[in-house]
Predict the 3D structure of the following.
Amino acid sequence: MANRTDPEAKTIHGTNPQNMVEKILRMKIYDSTYWKEHCFALTAEAVVDKAVDIKSLGGTYGGARKPSKFVCLLLKLLQLQPDKDIIIEFIKNEDYKYVRVLGAFYMRLVGRPIEVYNYLEPLYNDYRKLRMQNQDGGYALSHVDEVIDQMLTQEYLFDIALPRLPHRLTLERLNQLEPWISAMADDFDEAAIKAEEDAAKKQADALLAEVSKERRHTDRLRLKDHNETRDRRRRSHSRERDRAHDDGHERDKHREREKERRSGRDHEKKRRRSTSRERPGRDGVKSRKADQSDPAIILANQERAKLGLRPLK
């Protein structure tokens, strides 16, 4: 049948090559009009002609999540499993950028990690523009090197889960890959690079010294504020103690004055009592001592008593 994998195809990552595309997406591709009209009975050589007509990249789009031409042709390559040399020619094709990206994505799905790095990393030098179809059906601008970087770093692209890829540094430590050398490495002079490094180091040292100086200044200000705060607290506590002492002294003085006033009142009361004993009574008669001291008054009072008059004082 048209949807079956080539009987001579080998398993990829221990499974059928078409299983690299999720089943839901495969079913949508099988039901799409482009698959039925343009991908039926295609050969590996004929796929190139169809790939030349691709005008954008993408997975599925629209409300019905229709598959793009790019994923339809990718599934056809997985179904046919062409020779490795054909895929390499796809990747080396410099005339048609979408053919190159199709071959690179196929290599990312079926290739070994070393092959993926060896064949895809040179494409970092391709800066041609690409049209990316979004899920809403719109388009966005991208570049070949950006798509290649997404293939090497992301786990999901064009609605397809990518096989796990070891980090490049891990393969370098295992001596399976050579250290990465940028294509722009020859454009820089070693002396200029060293001069830039020295300038950057000096700038970093100056910045570090400035930060250290500012930090010391900040520490001094904090210490000064702390000392001022401590002094204010001490002065405040001293004033409170003085105020409390003054209040206690005033209370003592007040108690002494109250005590003196009470003592004065008591003395005045005693004096008044003693004076009242010496004064004549209410009937106006003088004391015996006064009566005995003045004989004339005594005689006069006797005469007045006989006449019924009040005695003289």
In short: The CA atoms of residues 238 and 244 lie 10 Å apart. Residues 281-287 have pLDDT under 50 and may be disordered. The chain has twelve helices and six strands. The radius of gyration is 58 Å.
